[in-house]
Each structure stands twice: as structure tokens, then as C-alpha cells.
Amino acid sequence: MKSGFVSVIGRTNAGKSTLVNSLLGEKIALVSHKRNATRRKINAIVMHDDKQIIFIDTPGLHKSDKLFNQSLIESAKKSIKDCDIVLFVVSVKDSTKDYEDFLAFHKDVKHVLVINKVDLEDKKYLLDKIQEYAKFDKYFQALIPFSCKKKAYKNILLDELCKHLNYDHYFYDTDILSSSSQRDIYREFILEALFESFADELPYSSDVIINEVKNKNDILHISANLITDTQAHKKILIGKNAEALKRIGIKARKKIEKFASCKVNLELFVLVKKAWTKDKQFLEKILR
């Protein structure tokens, strides 16, 4: 019996959330091709034989002068200090620059380096990429290729991480998938549906606040606010005859029903909070 915490770190769009969902075998973390989609730390609890691994999915590392983005970056950096080992994720298509930037500040942090999305390239390309990272072998504990589409990689990665777990007891019941609250997970699904519904920059000025969650007559009732920063964006989120808001609601409801395995009644409202991405107190409230 062993357990421990693993912080999943890497640049935006490296596939961290997809990797965590794949290891868990259940979708709980928001997945989007848009940058900075992950805004809050979501914990996934994976049982591997008699080992319990608590993965902390974090916002992507990137450079920005904006207060909102800096809040995300600080959240990711803090998680590095709160774990037994870091799982640093890079895409197979990335150069080594992001990893070198990580080493510039955290070279003494114990970590496993994962080259993700290896199914996107042929074997020769992958071998060349591994050689590029191999020159940093004095810093990482292991270098592991990974593909969410190929289960063979899963056990190799979990076996390696289990070597670095530091506790001789479980932190959570073995049948729990996440230590994050259900409200947080529902919020992730709603935000993901919002991201999927708009192709432009609108999602970056929007977020979700859960107002109420209650179960009545075997139906899960959820009320949530979509927060955006201008009246113009509010009109877009609602759409003509409320079609856009209905589309977000339908997508989110289906995601939540699949996860919760019950019927869901979802009510969405759109509120304007001007310059919310620059409001430090508000950011601390919704990103905690």
C-alpha cells in the first residue's frame, strides 16, 4: 500500500487534461484545443494495483503580463511544491524550449518527463525526438512516450510514478475518482461546452460560477451563471431567441448526465462583470 501526489505540469495544449482523463478512465477534466482552457486544479485519483496516485491537473505554463493569466501560472507553480513528483508533459510536436524553460527554474524538482501524443508521428520522428530530450537525462527520473489512444503506455507510466510515492496509507477511499467537489467538475463541463460553442476569443472573457446543486426526485438540478465582461458578449452568449445559450446548455447537460449517471435539469444565466479578468479579488474567488 502506497500513495502520493503527482502534479501534471506543461505548457498549454500539451494534452495534460486528456492524459489525466485517460489514466483515470473517466472524463473529469476540461479538454479543449483553446489555450488556457484549464483554469483550476482538478484532482484525479487513480488506483494502480494497491497504489493510490492523486494527479493534480494544473493550468498550462506560459508567459503573460495579464493578471488573469498570471493567476493561472501561479496556481500551476504552487502545485509543484505540493506533490511527491512532477509529471512534466510535452507534445511530440514541441521543441525542447518549454522544457528548458522549466529546468531553468526547477531543475532540482524531481520529475518524470512525458512525450505526449506520440501517435501523431511515425517511429523515426519519435526516436529523433527522444534523442533531443535524452541530453537532459541528468534532470529527469524517466523519459516516457505516451499516447492516450494506446493503452500499452498507461501501465508503463503508472509503474514509474508508483516508484516515487512517499506515503504508506491511502488519502481517499479507493472507489473515489476525484477529491475535487462535484460542483467543480460540473463547472468544468459547462465551461467546456461554452468553449466548444464559440470559435473566436469570446470564451477567454467568460467563466462559470455554480449557484446551486441539488438532487430532487432523482433529478440533478444545477443552476449556474456564465460570467462575461461586456453587454456585447452577453448578447453573443445568449444569441438570437436564446439559441446560443440553449446550445451551451444542451452540450453541458449531456456531459454532466454521462458523468453523474442521472437525469439533469440545467439552468444557465448570463451575467456581466466588467473587467473581471483584472479584478484580483474576484479572480481569487473563482479560481481557488
From TrEMBL:
<feature type="binding site">
    <location>
        <begin position="10"/>
        <end position="17"/>
    </location>
    <ligand>
        <name>GTP</name>
    </ligand>
</feature>
<keyword id="KW-0694">RNA-binding</keyword>
<feature type="region of interest" description="G2">
    <location>
        <begin position="36"/>
        <end position="40"/>
    </location>
</feature>
<feature type="region of interest" description="G4">
    <location>
        <begin position="116"/>
        <end position="119"/>
    </location>
</feature>
<dbReference type="GO" id="GO:0005886">
    <property type="term" value="C:plasma membrane"/>
</dbReference>
<keyword id="KW-0963">Cytoplasm</keyword>
<dbReference type="InterPro" id="IPR005225">
    <property type="entry name" value="Small_GTP-bd"/>
</dbReference>
<dbReference type="InterPro" id="IPR009019">
    <property type="entry name" value="KH_sf_prok-type"/>
</dbReference>
<dbReference type="InterPro" id="IPR006073">
    <property type="entry name" value="GTP-bd"/>
</dbReference>
<feature type="domain" description="Era-type G">
    <location>
        <begin position="2"/>
        <end position="167"/>
    </location>
</feature>
<dbReference type="GO" id="GO:0000028">
    <property type="term" value="P:ribosomal small subunit assembly"/>
</dbReference>
<dbReference type="InterPro" id="IPR027417">
    <property type="entry name" value="P-loop_NTPase"/>
</dbReference>
<comment type="similarity">
    <text>Belongs to the TRAFAC class TrmE-Era-EngA-EngB-Septin-like GTPase superfamily. Era GTPase family.</text>
</comment>
<keyword id="KW-0699">rRNA-binding</keyword>
<keyword id="KW-0690">Ribosome biogenesis</keyword>
<comment type="subunit">
    <text>Monomer.</text>
</comment>
<dbReference type="GO" id="GO:0003924">
    <property type="term" value="F:GTPase activity"/>
</dbReference>
<dbReference type="InterPro" id="IPR030388">
    <property type="entry name" value="G_ERA_dom"/>
</dbReference>
<feature type="region of interest" description="G5">
    <location>
        <begin position="146"/>
        <end position="148"/>
    </location>
</feature>
<dbReference type="InterPro" id="IPR004044">
    <property type="entry name" value="KH_dom_type_2"/>
</dbReference>
<dbReference type="GO" id="GO:0070181">
    <property type="term" value="F:small ribosomal subunit rRNA binding"/>
</dbReference>
<keyword id="KW-1003">Cell membrane</keyword>
<feature type="binding site">
    <location>
        <begin position="116"/>
        <end position="119"/>
    </location>
    <ligand>
        <name>GTP</name>
    </ligand>
</feature>
<feature type="region of interest" description="G3">
    <location>
        <begin position="57"/>
        <end position="60"/>
    </location>
</feature>
<dbReference type="Pfam" id="PF01926">
    <property type="entry name" value="MMR_HSR1"/>
</dbReference>
<protein>
    <recommendedName>
        <fullName>GTPase Era</fullName>
    </recommendedName>
</protein>
<keyword id="KW-0342">GTP-binding</keyword>
<keyword id="KW-0547">Nucleotide-binding</keyword>
<dbReference type="InterPro" id="IPR005662">
    <property type="entry name" value="GTPase_Era-like"/>
</dbReference>
<dbReference type="GO" id="GO:0043024">
    <property type="term" value="F:ribosomal small subunit binding"/>
</dbReference>
<dbReference type="Pfam" id="PF07650">
    <property type="entry name" value="KH_2"/>
</dbReference>
<dbReference type="InterPro" id="IPR015946">
    <property type="entry name" value="KH_dom-like_a/b"/>
</dbReference>
<feature type="binding site">
    <location>
        <begin position="57"/>
        <end position="61"/>
    </location>
    <ligand>
        <name>GTP</name>
    </ligand>
</feature>
<comment type="function">
    <text>An essential GTPase that binds both GDP and GTP, with rapid nucleotide exchange. Plays a role in 16S rRNA processing and 30S ribosomal subunit biogenesis and possibly also in cell cycle regulation and energy metabolism.</text>
</comment>
<feature type="region of interest" description="G1">
    <location>
        <begin position="10"/>
        <end position="17"/>
    </location>
</feature>
<dbReference type="GO" id="GO:0005525">
    <property type="term" value="F:GTP binding"/>
</dbReference>
<dbReference type="GO" id="GO:0005829">
    <property type="term" value="C:cytosol"/>
</dbReference>
<keyword id="KW-0472">Membrane</keyword>
